[in-house]
């Protein structure tokens, strides 16, 4: 990733956030630990995390795909520390006044006695890792929450995301109890179909039980349609759009590696015979 003088990069040195700035961010008490990862740049407060070149590219790709499919997501910016030029992924704090926020695992635990949701236990139950019990999720069909979940799974499948663990999904609930996903974040560990951490890697699941995802597409046509929509977006298109938006350049080697990785992902998805249902 070649950064030039024209590139949209935010240079910064970390400064602790003042109390009056924190109070305006509506960060729930249960998430106050993120305060140590906040920095103020100009008049804007960002959450920052260190990034390698690959994880930074992955974050930018995830933001782009989410935007294309209409999924509420953080919009990652490239940060570079002035002192040592280290890369950081920057995102604006997304908490809003009037909403309750929970990690997916806490949200599920609070509702287990109602048999509403359950995390992945057995791959044969036709569930994708660390999302939701899709059989019960059908009860929410037609709601923004259901639609957001389908889009999230589709984006993660497109990227071979293997880090969508239960604390990389947040739920937001408004004052009248309407449920939806909070903006999605953390796309950094993606584009590696050979990573076998089954609890957070849909592709490990697919490789072992291809037929189960085949059935999943038939039961959840919305997911199938979103996967098909994203399959039409080529890696060349994605990288070109990011280059234009961020005013940077990817090396020929990076472009080659990402195109090969996307081809491997697409080849694996073809085994699930997605096109048979289009």
Compose a concise summary of this entry:
The chain is of the alpha+beta class.
Describe it for me?
The structure is a single chain. This protein is α+β, with helices and mostly antiparallel strands and 278 residues long. It is built from ten helices and eight strands. The strands form two sheets. The protein has a five-stranded mixed β-sheet, covered by helices on one side. It has a three-stranded antiparallel β-sheet with strand order 6-7-8. Helix 2 (53-69) packs across helix 5. Mean pLDDT is 81; it is low at 112-132 and 274-278.
**Would you list the SSEs in sequence order as H and E?**
EHEEHEEEHHHEEHHHHH
Uncertain segments are 112-132, 274-278
How large is the radius of gyration? Answer: 19 Å
Structural class: alpha+beta
> Strand count, sense and closure of the main sheet?
5 strands, mixed
Shape: flat
Helix content: 25-40%
For the record, give the distance between the C-alpha atoms at the N and C termini, rounded to a whole number.
36 Å
State the helix count.
10
Q: Using DSSP, what is the number of strands?
A: 8
User: How do the strands of the widest beta sheet line up side by side?
Assistant: 1-4-5-3-2
What value does the average pLDDT take? 81
Q: What fraction of the residues are assigned to beta strands by DSSP? A: 5-15%
């Amino acid at each position: 990733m070649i950064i030039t003088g024209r590139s949209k990069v935010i240079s910064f040195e970390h400064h602790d956030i003042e109390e009056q700035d924190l109070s305006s961010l509506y960060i729930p008490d249960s998430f106050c630990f993120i305060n140590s990862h906040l920095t103020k740049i100009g008049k804007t407060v960002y959450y920052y995390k260190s990034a390698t070149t690959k994880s930074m590219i992955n974050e930018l790709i995830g933001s782009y795909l989410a935007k294309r499919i209409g999924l509420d997501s953080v919009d990652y910016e490239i940060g570079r520390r002035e002192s040592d030029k280290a890369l950081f992924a920057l995102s604006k704090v997304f908490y809003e006044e009037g909403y309750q926020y929970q990690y997916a695992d806490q949200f599920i635990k609070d509702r287990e006695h109602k048999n509403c949701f359950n995390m992945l236990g057995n791959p044969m139950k036709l569930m994708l890792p660390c999302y939701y019990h899709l059989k019960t999720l059908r009860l929410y069909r037609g709601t923004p929450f259901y639609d957001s979940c389908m889009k999230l799974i589709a984006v993660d499948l497109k990227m071979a995301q293997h880090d969508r663990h239960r604390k990389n999904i947040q739920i937001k609930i408004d004052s009248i109890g309407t449920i939806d996903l909070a903006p999605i974040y953390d796309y950094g560990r993606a584009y590696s179909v050979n990573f076998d951490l089954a609890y957070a890697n849909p592709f490990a699941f697919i490789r072992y039980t291809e037929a189960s995802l085949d059935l999943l597409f038939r039961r959840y046509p919305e997911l199938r349609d979103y996967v098909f929509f994203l399959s039409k977006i080529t890696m060349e298109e994605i990288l070109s759009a990011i280059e234009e938006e961020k005013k940077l350049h990817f090396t020929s080697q990076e472009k080659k590696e990402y195109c090969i990785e996307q081809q491997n992902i697409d080849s694996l998805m073809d085994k699930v015979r997605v096109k048979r249902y289009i």
